[in-house]
Amino acid sequence: MATIYTYTAFGLTFSSEIEIPEFLPTTGESQVLITLGNVPENIEGNSTEGFRFQISKNEFIIRFKPWVSFYVCNGNSIIIQPEKDADERDVRVFLISSVIAILLHQRGWMPLHASGIKVNNKAVLFSANSGIGKSTISLALNRKFGYPLIADDITIISEKEGKPIVHSSFPSAKLWQESIDLLGISNEGLNYIRKDVFKYRYDNRPDFFNGILEPFIVFVLENSDNEKVEISEVKGIEKFNVLRIHIFRLRMVNELYATELFKLISILLNTAKCFKISRPKNGNTLDELCSIVQSIITK
Amino acid sequence: MKKNIVWLASYPKSGNTWCRIFLSNYLNKTNEPANINKLDIGAIFSSRSIIEENTGYDISELTANECDELRSFAFSKWSENYGDNAFLKTHDAYLALPNGENMFPVESTKAAICFVRNPLDVAVSFANHMATTPEKTVDKMSDSDFCLAASTKKYNQQVRQRLLTWSGHINSWTLQKDFPVLTVRYEDMLENPSREFLSILDFLKMPIDLDKLTKAINNSSFETIKKIEKEIGFKEKPAKCETFFKVGKSGYYKNILSEGSIKKIINDQTDCMKNIIIFQNQGN
Fold it and tell me: Phi and psi of B54, rounded to 5°?
């Protein structure tokens, strides 16, 4: 009989037939089953197609050729079909990002493309497109001021009794060598996220908070052509728009969960402040960014 | 599916950006020079954000070859938002994927314009662009494995672009049979911009307005865009490069290139140089 691993991540308990060392082990009853098996050829009934994926409200099939295919359904089940010669990292990297993100959408939750830290029992999030420095700033603030990491790439927003809650994800971050250098971390002993993708997997345990927090501030990071770091508070409809575009895998789900996402963004924005930070695309502004963020969160 | 993509294809520093600025000015409704940092006429085929936005994938999880597999789908979808001409700049050689499938969205393609420039001048200008020596640049122009945005160690706004050699690049575009291609020489654009830009408009069956043509040529002249770059900067300039629009002249290589570099280029690129009749202008 196959070994079953039990983990906690994204506010859920996963029971998995594959080992996911990036997640925290736990015990107890699982809400999501991850099994090895055959992925169906197609979704039956109405679905839309994207590049090597099909999606409907409750089902999702994606094929990362030539390594692995996934089938996600009903927000509680993931079937993995690895191909011959698939490296386990090639399987996991997609599982713990796009695939689980769609599962979270299916549950009516909002995966935000954001890293995060815990500040005075509240969540401070850094939302941005890839490559802007979400992971780097969270880890820099963790190092400078001791704020525990709560997420690296995906932060989950859901609702409890009409109020927004933030679920932590898991303790590992994905870092380019450039970020490793900026943070003064050694890359010795670190693995690449995939065998042929040279971005490092960095585990921040034990400095990680696992649990639920009230949202405090969302910083939206952007690169700019300006020479200085600029910060401004975002209000009104712009606040809604800047957050909406950072919903994780929005381009895959499109309008499928529009109602759920609209509600979650709305209640999140009723509670959390939002600031936009534009930083020069060239040059090292990490210390300046950390000082600016620290001054706002301790005000 | 629309068939509206127009490739603005070239080896770097061969007049591609100049043409994009011209087109932006030609299509611009005002008489003021277009903002070179907001050339609203299309995109670049290596844009990471367009690939991610139109596929939903996170490219930083993929290898360069896997990214290439997304490009045809992504840009075909992207082009649906445009009218008759969706201009796409590219420095990629016209190559297929390793499995033989198209990397370029051929079904969505209307035509291509391929800009070519004397490789001796390209070497000088490209060396400035990459903030390296002309000798190293000349070597890269003979390297069939040469790529732009090739680093696998850091985040890049653009995906990897395979250029092949200078000759390989030009041949890949000018000899392909998938769609019509107009070859435009940089030297001819310098000598008679009206004639060359008119030929581009004509080739693309774009409405011709001679007043607009004159305005666009003036607003995209080398002196004008160099002045604009000095005033407001140019976001497409690499960080290490001092100025994007530096000399722009033909034959400038004579002041810069060593005899050895000239010989190497002529030796390595002879056939292609002959084909585009640049070779004869050098008196060889």
Answer: -95, -5
